[in-house]
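note to self: dont lose this again. the chain is below, predicted strucutre after it. 198 aa total, dont forget to put it in the shared folder this time
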Amino acid sequence: MSSIDTSLPDEIASVTDADEDERLSKDVIFELLKNRRRREVLAYLLEADETVTLGELAEQIAAWENDTEVNALSSDQRKRVYVALYQTHLPKMDDAGIVEYDQDRGLISLADNADLLMMYLDTDTHRQDRWDRWYAGVSLIGAALIGAAFLGVPLVSAAPMIGLAGAVITAFLLLSLTHVVSNHRRERNVDGKLSRIE
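---
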């Protein structure tokens, strides 16, 4: 008989009763995200972008926790993480619809509700949204073109100053429109996700 409590908190248990709704409360989301190992499971599955085995998942998380390489782990370090994932974390995440966990085969993949948790994590997709770099680039190029025309650099000074200024303004206009469209798409995506949160 196991002494580990594998019962689900009331918030998660109530979600499993209403599977067809595919909605999660913020309480469930934060209950799942409050544990570092569950966040690491999400990070690993997001990076792998495919079905993984419990063994490889446990090894990588153990390596992260012990600040070492997978091949340098002791069997106790592997086992400690493996058992916790097998008995507690993965069943909770599976019950909430965050991962698909085949306990018999030891296979794990991201499920449909995983995107609801991803928006609360600091992932690479959030770091890639750097519009400031695009604006700075257009500013530098525009300033260089206008400065070169003002200083009489051949080829650039042949173009009328009003034409160069118009090109810089058009570049900013196109960049701004692209930024607006991108933000609108992201906002619709986030609104769609938020509509699935109670």
